[in-house]
């Protein structure tokens, strides 16, 4: 099945990564390989692109999409949090640029068959890496009501988290919840009828996002990655990150702020205890968003936020 996806903020990514022939770059989230292809075309001859994705389908697609430049590409079916191990495997200490696109691809939503979309009658899976053990189905059917409520509220910022969690527990006593469409209907039933027609987004949007984040441990992985990624950049090397969720962007913003040498202590602390040291300079004073023209062509880009920094 073809891997369909339109890369978000492509020109901005290439510009902020400062792609130069002969240099080494890492695309930590290959997806449809749109960003990867644009990068490798800028770094030849002599450059190296290291492509990573935990979704095996993305790796298979990348092998095809990047075949014309296969001598300049190394692909790894891994989670980007394991970047240190990957670089060690190929005897590279540091690189000139790192890209992280945290969005879900069109392929995963529409064609993967893993229940990422509430619009599909698919198994309730939601694993980016099909070798992972925990599925969304396991959480929905095995977690207690308080645990589900916490996931929906914390990761999805869902204001009806309590009622939705209660309805899920009630429904699974009658029948195991196994499909995306089944879960979506349970969520919709927890929403007052009048709200179904006034909400700007589908009632199940935040619940599905929260479950995906929990299944793939996305926030924990991002936080861990952000704490060490800059260590693998050469001086003047660049880190470019595209997030789609306020919690993701908060992690990225907070870490870049710390790396800039700015205090990140809570405002009520009487004095600074974080001992900040300046390691990077921010390239994006304010978060960048896609243009209206891009959103018109690719509506999936509407929530994208780009931040970039350069190692000193």
Task: Itemize the secondary structure elements and their pairings.
Blueprint: H1 10-17, E1 24-27, H2 34-43, E2 48-53, H3 56-65, E3 73-77, H4 83-89, E4 95-101, H5 106-110, H6 136-142, H7 145-156, H8 161-174, H9 180-189, H10 193-198, H11 205-216, H12 218-228, E5 233-243, H13 246-259, E6 280-282, H14 292-297, E7 305-311
Parallel strand pairs: 1-2, 1-4, 2-3, 4-5
Antiparallel strand pairs: 5-7, 6-7
Helix pairs in contact: 7-8, 7-11, 8-9, 12-13
From the coordinates shown, what is the CATH architecture of the largest domain?
3-Layer(aba) Sandwich
The percentage of residues in β strands lies in 5-15%
Number of strands: 7
What's the number of structural domains? Answer: 2
Secondary-structure element order, as H and E?
Answer: HEHEHEHEHHHHHHHHEHEHE
Mean pLDDT: 93
Chain oligomer state: single chain
State the fourth-level CATH superfamily of the largest domain. Vaccinia Virus protein VP39
* Percentage of residues in helical conformation: 40-55%
Low-confidence stretches: none
CATH topology call of the largest domain? Rossmann fold
> For the record, what CATH class of the largest domain applies?
Alpha Beta
- What gross morphology would you assign? globular
């Amino acid at each position: 099945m073809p891997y369909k996806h339109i890369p978000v903020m492509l020109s901005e990514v290439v510009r902020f990564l400062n792609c130069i022939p002969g240099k080494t770059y890492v695309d930590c989230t290959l997806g449809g390989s749109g960003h990867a292809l644009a990068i490798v075309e800028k770094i030849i001859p002599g450059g190296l692109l290291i492509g990573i994705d935990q979704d095996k389908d993305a790796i298979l697609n990348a092998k095809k999409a990047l075949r014309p430049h296969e001598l300049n590409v190394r692909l790894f079916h891994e989670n980007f949090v394991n970047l240190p191990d990957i670089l060690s495997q190929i005897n590279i200490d540091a690189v000139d640029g790192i890209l992280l696109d945290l969005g879900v691809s069109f392929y995963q939503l529409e064609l993967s068959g893993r229940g990422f979309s509430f619009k599909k009658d698919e198994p309730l899976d939601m694993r980016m890496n099909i070798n992972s053990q925990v599925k969304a189905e396991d959480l929905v059917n095995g977690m207690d009501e308080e645990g589900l409520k916490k996931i929906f509220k914390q990761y999805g910022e869902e204001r009806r988290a309590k009622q939705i969690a209660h309805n899920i527990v009630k429904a699974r006593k009658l029948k195991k919840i196994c499909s995306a469409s089944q879960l979506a209907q349970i969520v919709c039933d927890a929403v007052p009828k009048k709200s179904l027609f006034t909400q700007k987004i589908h009632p199940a949007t935040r619940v599905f996002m929260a479950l995906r984040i929990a299944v793939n441990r996305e926030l924990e992985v991002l936080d861990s990655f952000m704490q060490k990624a800059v260590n693998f950049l050469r001086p003047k090397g660049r880190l470019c990150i595209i997030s789609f969720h306020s919690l993701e962007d908060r992690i990225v913003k907070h870490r870049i702020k710390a790396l800039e040498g700015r205090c990140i202590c809570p405002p009520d602390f009487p004095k600074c205890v974080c001992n900040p040291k300046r390691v990077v300079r921010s390239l994006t004073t304010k978060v960048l968003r896609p243009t209206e023209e891009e959103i018109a062509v690719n509506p999936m880009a509407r929530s994208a936020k780009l931040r970039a920094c350069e190692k000193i």
